[in-house]
Oxidoreductase, molybdopterin-binding domain-containing protein (Neohortaea acidophila), 355 residues
Amino acid sequence: MASAIGDLHRSDFEPAPGNGEERQAFVQMNPNRTQIREPPPPHELNGFLTSEDALFQTLHMGAAEVDEDKWMLVVDGIVERPYAITLQQLRQLPSKTLTSFHECYGSPLLPPKKALSRIGNVRWTGVPLHSLIAAAKPHPQASFVWSEGLDRGKFGPVEADRYQKDLPMDKALSAEVLVAYQMNSQPLGRNRGGPVRLVVPGWFGTNSTKWLSRLSVQDRRAPGPFTTTLYNERHPADDPECESRPVWKVQPNSIIVAPTPETNIHGPEVLVEGWAWCCDSKGIGGVGVSVDEGQQWVMAEIGNREDFSWQRFRARLQLSPGSHVVLARARSPSGRSQPMGEGRNHVHRVPIVVR
């Protein structure tokens, strides 16, 4: 175990409790209801890192208050060495800091047709998930890692005694997935899932379980309502014959941050800037900018990617005086592009007037 998670020895950790003892850290739900805080408009998300007050907030069943002195993380399932670790012990383990875009899929109770722009870019610090899983020595048939939060209550028609999600083993063991205790160099607050949450870069925020209390290595998908009933989609979304798939990977997406909508701009040159992102480990494949609904495209310059961050794009257009609608369309390295019309990641349009 020491070789997997640093200098702490196996004797420093408790055996995994078998009676849900880790859930005794739960105090109460506050608030005890679904709560959504929308982000500011895209043109206000101009900085590379998104501050706490500018980052959207999604609380499915409310926010769990947690007694940090009682908090523990249990790692169990089909493993040779199940164990439990305290918050102090977790913070003593070798940590990693990385930057990643963080995107909300939107309500799983509604058709995925509306672009929400619930997006931000933050810096997380925590312990790589793969090291915690390796320390438990999974059995060869292990294929999923279930994660459980301390939150409980109602979300729409669903009532659950815990928030439960799962990750395929290949994603769970990838280098970027963290058991995080800091965001933007600050301890995680209650409404961010503190003291500890899962962070799954490149995948939608629903997979990053807040108020994390248990990781269970299993040979099948988790049975909770947030995997079986909610957060599944058809691809394409409007094809009723298409097989349902989990809401995991983030499709290519983008927002325009400049110019500001409805502004008067001195032409003929207009600078268009924004952010683009997708699940691909190579980053975004390209961004096109158009003022004629995609009949002609100007390819933007794309900035570098930091870890799994969003990427800056810039394009200079030569526009005649009058009203225009600027749109941006991102594509992945494999060639998959944002939809022009309906779809939760459809292109962002900004109306402007050139003088």
The mean pLDDT is 93. The longest strand covers residues 119-128. The domain at 253-354 is CATH 2.60.40.650 (Immunoglobulin-like). Residues 129-136 form the longest helix (8 residues).
